[in-house]
C-alpha cells in the first residue's frame, strides 16, 4: 500500500469509528400521549413539538435543564418510523393557532405519530468529552385513552361484561339515556336464529346510547371502539350488544349454534382477541414513557356522576400500567414503561393559587394504585399543566380584598374577566353537589406572534421529568 493509500485507510477507519461512536451516543425514546377525548392530547402534542422546535436559546423552558443550560442545539421533524400510522397533524394545528382569529387544533381521533430529532450538547459523563453533540430520537405516539378502558374486557367473559352493562344502565342519567336501546331489546329472541341485520340495528342503538353518555361527560365507556372506532367503522366486529334479558337459565356453555346469542358471544370474543389484544401488542410492548392527560375541571363542571365515572375510568386506565407478576399485561408481553405522568390538563382555566389543589385532586384520584406501581419500578408523577396558556392572571379588589382573576377570550371571541372559583383538593361530598356546582370557563387560544413559542404552564417541568435524563 502506498503512503497516500495508508493515510486514506486510516482516515476512513477514523470516520467509521466516529460514526459508530455517534451512533452509540444517539438515544431513542418512545413517548406515548393519551387521555380521554377532549382531555387535550392534540393541544398537548402540538405544544410539545412547538416548544422543542421553537424554544432553542429562548427562556421559554426554564425548568428543562438542557434548555436552561443552553445545550439544546436544535430540533427538527423527520419522517415517522411507522408509515402505516397517520401523521400527527402538527402543521395544521399550528395554522389554526396562528390564524388571525386563533382556533384550537382539530382533535385527533385514532392513532397518530410524529418523530423528532433533538440535537444537544452532552453535559455530563464520558459523552461530554467524546462528542460535540448527540441526537435524541423522540417518537411521539398519540392514541385515544378510551381504548385503554378495554383492557378489563380481557378478564371478563361475555356474560360478565353484560352484567356490568346492565348495572351501569341503572345508574343516574344512564337510565333514561339507555331507554331506547333497552326498549328495542324487549322483542329480542336471544336463542332464536341469528339475524345479522337485527344485530346491526341493535348495535347502532347501543352505540348511540354510549355516544350520548360521552356527550354528557360520562366517561366510563366500554367497549372503547364503539365511540372511537378508528379504522373499524362499519366492521361486524363492532356489532355486538350486551345480553340484558331477565332470563337467568341460559346455559352459556352450550348455546344453540347460529343463534343471536351465540353470534354475540363470538363477536365479543373476536373483539377481545382481534382488536383489544393486538392494540396492546402493537403499541404498548415497546413504549418507554407515557403521559396521561386528565380533564378534571370539565368533569367537576359536569357534576357528580361524571366525576365518579372519570375516577372509575382512571382506575381502569391504571390497569394498563400494572406490571405486577399476575397482571393481564405481563401475560401478554413484557412492558417496559419506566416513567408515567398523570397531568391535569387546562390548568390555565383556574388561578395559580388553585394549581396545588388541582394536583392534589388528581393525586387523590390516582392514589390507590400509586404505591404498587412505584414498587414495580415505574416512576409515577402527578402534575397540572396547560399545554397552551390561554388566560392571563390579574388582580382585582373585591369587598376590600385582593383577588386573583383570569382574563382571556371566550370561544365566541368575547373578553372574559372572572374568578373561576376554588378547586377542591379531593372529591367533594355528595351534599356539596346537591347544593352547588362548578363553572370553570373555556377560553379561545391566545392571539400571539406566530414566531414565538406557545405560552404554557409547566410544559418544561413535564419535559424534564419525561426526557431530562436522556439529555444529560
Ligand atoms: P383531545 O380530544 O384529547 O385531542 O383534546 P384537544 O387537544 O382537542 O382539546 C380539547 C379542547 O380542550 C380544545 O379544543 C380546547 O378547547 C381545550 N384545551 C386543550 N388544551 C388546552 C389548554 O392547554 N388550555 C386551554 N385553555 N384549553 C385547552
Notes on the protein architecture:
The chain is α/β, with parallel strands linked by helices. The protein is 39% helix and 16% strand. The chain has 16 helices and eleven strands. It has helices at residues 3-25, 41-54, 65-68, 90-98, 125-130, 158-168, 174-177, 179-184, 196-215, 260-284, 296-302, 304-319, 328-332, 355-375, 430-435, 459-467; strands spanning 27-35, 72-78, 86-87, 112-120, 134-142, 289-294, 339-344, 379-384, 392-398, 401-409, 415-418. The two termini are 43 Å apart.
Considering the chains and any ligands shown, give keywords for the structure:
Rossmann fold; P-loop_NTPase; 16 helices; three-stranded antiparallel sheet; alpha/beta; eight-stranded mixed sheet; 472 residues; YcjX family protein; single chain; 3 domains; YcjX-like; 39% helix
The percent of residues in helical segments reads: 25-40%
**CATH level-two architecture of the largest domain:** 3-Layer(aba) Sandwich
Tally of contiguous helical segments: 16
Which CATH C-level class of the largest domain is it?
A: Alpha Beta
Please give the largest β-sheet. 8 strands, mixed
Total domains: 3
Cα radius of gyration in angstroms: 26 Å
How much of the residues is beta strand, in percent?
15-25%
Order of helices and strands: HEHHEEHEHEHHHHHEHHHEHEEEEHH
Which ions and ligands are bound to the chains?
Answer: guanosine-5'-diphosphate
Amino acid at each position: 500500500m502506498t503512503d497516500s493509500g495508508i493515510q486514506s485507510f486510516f482516515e476512513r477507519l477514523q470516520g467509521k469509528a466516529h460514526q459508530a461512536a455517534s451512533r452509540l451516543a444517539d438515544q431513542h425514546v418512545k413517548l406515548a400521549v393519551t387521555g380521554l377525548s377532549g382531555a387535550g392530547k392534540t393541544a398537548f402534542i402540538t405544544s410539545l413539538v412547538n416548544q422543542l422546535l421553537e424554544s432553542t436559546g429562548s427562556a421559554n423552558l426554564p425548568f428543562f435543564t438542557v434548555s436552561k443550560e443552553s445545550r439544546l442545539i436544535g430540533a427538527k421533524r423527520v419522517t415517522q418510523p411507522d408509515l402505516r400510522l397517520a401523521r400527527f397533524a402538527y402543521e395544521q394545528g399550528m395554522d389554526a393557532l396562528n390564524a388571525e382569529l386563533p382556533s384550537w387544533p382539530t382533535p385527533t381521533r385514532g392513532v397518530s405519530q410524529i418523530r423528532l430529532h433533538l440535537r444537544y450538547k452532552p453535559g455530563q459523563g464520558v459523552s461530554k468529552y467524546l462528542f460535540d453533540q448527540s441526537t435524541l430520537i423522540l417518537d411521539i405516539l398519540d392514541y385515544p385513552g378510551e381504548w385503554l378502558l378495554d383492557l378489563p374486557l380481557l378478564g371478563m367473559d361475555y356474560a360478565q361484561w353484560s352484567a356490568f352493562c346492565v348495572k351501569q344502565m341503572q345508574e343516574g342519567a344512564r337510565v333514561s339515556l339507555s331507554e331506547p336501546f333497552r326498549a328495542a331489546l324487549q322483542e329480542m329472541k336471544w336463542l332464536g336464529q341469528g339475524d345479522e341485520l337485527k344485530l346491526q340495528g341493535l348495535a347502532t342503538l347501543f352505540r348511540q346510547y354510549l355516544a350520548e353518555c360521552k356527550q354528557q361527560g360520562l366517561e366510563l365507556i366500554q367497549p372503547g371502539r364503539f365511540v372511537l372506532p378508528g379504522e373499524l367503522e362499519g366492521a361486524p366486529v363492532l356489532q355486538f350488544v350486551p345480553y340484558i334479558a331477565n332470563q337467568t337459565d341460559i346455559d352459556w356453555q352450550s348455546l344453540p349454534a347460529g343463534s343471536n346469542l351465540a353470534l354475540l358471544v363470538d363477536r365479543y370474543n373476536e373483539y377481545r382477541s382481534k382488536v383489544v389484544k393486538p392494540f396492546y401488542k402493537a403499541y404498548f410492548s415497546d413504549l418507554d414513557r407515557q403521559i396521561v392527560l386528565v380533564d378534571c375541571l370539565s368533569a367537576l363542571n359536569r357534576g357528580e356522576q361524571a366525576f365518579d365515572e372519570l375516577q372509575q375510568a382512571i382506575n381502569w386506565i391504571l390497569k394498563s400500567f400494572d406490571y405486577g407478576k399476575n397482571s393481564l399485561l405481563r401475560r401478554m408481553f413484557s412492558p417496559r414503561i419506566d416513567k408515567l405522568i398523570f397531568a391535569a390538563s387546562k390548568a390555565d382555566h383556574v388561578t395559580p393559587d388553585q394549581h396545588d389543589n388541582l394536583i392534589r385532586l388528581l393525586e387523590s384520584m390516582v392514589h390507590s394504585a400509586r404505591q404498587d406501581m412505584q414498587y414495580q419500578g415505574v416512576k409515577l408523577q402527578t402534575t397540572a399543566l396547560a399545554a397552551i396558556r390561554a388566560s392571563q392572571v390579574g388582580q382585582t379588589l373585591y369587598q376590600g380584598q385582593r383577588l386573583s382573576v383570569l382574563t382571556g377570550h371566550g370561544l365566541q371571541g368575547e373578553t372574559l374577566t372572572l374568578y373561576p372559583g376554588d378547586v377542591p383538593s379531593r372529591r367533594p361530598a355528595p351534599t356539596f353537589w346537591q347544593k352547588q356546582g362548578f363553572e370553570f370557563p373555556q377560553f379561545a387560544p391566545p392571539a400571539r406572534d406566530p414566531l414565538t413559542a406557545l405560552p404554557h404552564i409547566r410544559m418544561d417541568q413535564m419535559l424534564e421529568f419525561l426526557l431530562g435524563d436522556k439529555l444529560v
